[in-house]
Amino acid sequence: MKRVVVLGAGESGVGAAILAKKLGMDVFVSDKSVIKEKYLKQLKKEGIAFESGQHTHGLILNANVVVKSPGIPDHIPFIKNIKEAGISIISEIEFAAQHSTAKVIGITGSNGKTTTTMLTHHLLKQAGYNVGIGGNIGESYAEQVANQNFDKYVLELSSFQLDGIELFRPHIAMITNITPDHLDRYEYDFDKYIDSKFRITKNQKASDYLIYDADDPVIVEGIKKHSPKAQLVPFSLQTKQEFGAYVDQKDIVINIRKKELRMSISKLSLQGKHNTKNAMAATLASQLLKARKQTILESLENFEGAEHRLEHVLKVNGVEYINDSKATNVNATFYALECMNNPTVWIVGGVDKGNDYAELYPLVREKVKAIICLGLDNTKIKAAFGSIVDFIEEVESADAAVKIAYKLADKGETVLLSPACASFDLFESYEDRGRKFKDAVRNL
């Protein structure tokens, strides 16, 4: 009997364990941290052996295959020990894909991938397809393979998940953009991070598709370097595409198989240049899968965006409060500030991932009237913006940030939480940070 050891008992790990159990494998789950109650219940219910708060080497090094949580870095000594023992280490994505015949639309990128994944799923579901959504979002892909019968999956894929693939082959791959992010996991080498993103297309064939942003020089160079076998499907705001998507004055134009689909940008439910690109990418995928034009157009108009991504919370005394907690890097915050049309009180900060704030300077000069630092160490933010913005205040809770913002913002202005940093200094996750911000706004 094949022995599968799962490292990490979060959403992906427990999902992989449930699938392994269903396939009749000998499965063991090991988590160095204390396993959360929700996942403990699932493991006990399924009768899966586990350990919490430790890794017992003897119980792990006898595995045929190890399914590793994306949160565990490859460079730690224990992972090296497993590799030296000749044991294959894969991601939950790889493990689930090996046991599923469903078509996969795989979406990666530094920013925009959650919205694009949700939008693509929305378009396909509205078009009547039997389609699941997973990966870095929602319920575990592996658990859905175990317990559902979807014909298609739309998967949001992080670079960490792609690092653990071997044979995984999406029928449609999508790269929304590539900007420096998570460089602490890639030895501060941007090229290694880029290579990681391009793993999404490494197993694709000529019958598959790669949808990508033709305006992104990093992706364009990456395509030259990696020479994908898949058919290239570009989208662009800047240049006309014979096969792909582009903007013609105030319309999106989609050209696939000599069929043109045209839609006014003003009708999109999500506004902003980056969302125009997300809509193009999602529409291209839907068109390639032969969804009806009319259904696509209606679905683009009625889609509601992702929580914690430029999410409108409330208007209080004429001030708009926006939750963009999912902006954990500079590029995501650039998009958010670009969308601001009124003077903005900007809440920023957290765990810096090697950020370079220089690209934000023009937008901050133009749009930001005050900065509230929500983090334990704000030295870098103060140094970056101290000479640009007159008012910078430091706080250590979402509640305090919102109370100060309330005093600073005047009618017709905006309060924007767009941290450009990870959340782990003061919060459990970006979701926790976003929810606490929203609670604080509602309590004003």
TrEMBL record:
Question: Does the keyword Signal feature in the UniProt annotation?
Answer: no
Q: Membrane spanning segments where?
A: none
Binding positions (ATP): G109, S110, N111, G112, K113, T114, T115
List its EC numbers. Answer: 6.3.2.9
Query: Its domain of life?
Result: Bacteria
* Keywords noted in UniProt: ATP-binding, Cell cycle, Cell division, Cell shape, Cell wall biogenesis/degradation, Cytoplasm, Ligase, Nucleotide-binding, Peptidoglycan synthesis
The pathway this protein participates in, as annotated, is: Cell wall biogenesis; peptidoglycan biosynthesis
- Primary subcellular site in the record, as a coarse category: cytoplasm
Q: Report the residue ranges that make up the Mur ligase central domain in this protein.
A: 107-285
The UniProt entry, under Pfam families, shows: Mur_ligase_C (PF02875), Mur_ligase_M (PF08245), MurD-like_N (PF21799)
Q: Which reaction does it catalyse?
A: UDP-N-acetyl-alpha-D-muramoyl-L-alanine + D-glutamate + ATP = UDP-N-acetyl-alpha-D-muramoyl-L-alanyl-D-glutamate + ADP + phosphate + H(+)
Localisation per UniProt entry: Cytoplasm
Indicate yes or no for the key word Ribonucleoprotein: no
Q: Which GO terms describe its molecular function?
A: UDP-N-acetylmuramoylalanine-D-glutamate ligase activity
> What positions does the domain Mur ligase C-terminal occupy?
308-421
Protein family per UniProt: Belongs to the MurCDEF family.
Instruction: Say what the protein does.
Output: Cell wall formation. Catalyzes the addition of glutamate to the nucleotide precursor UDP-N-acetylmuramoyl-L-alanine (UMA).
What is the protein name given in its UniProt record? Answer: UDP-N-acetylmuramoylalanine--D-glutamate ligase
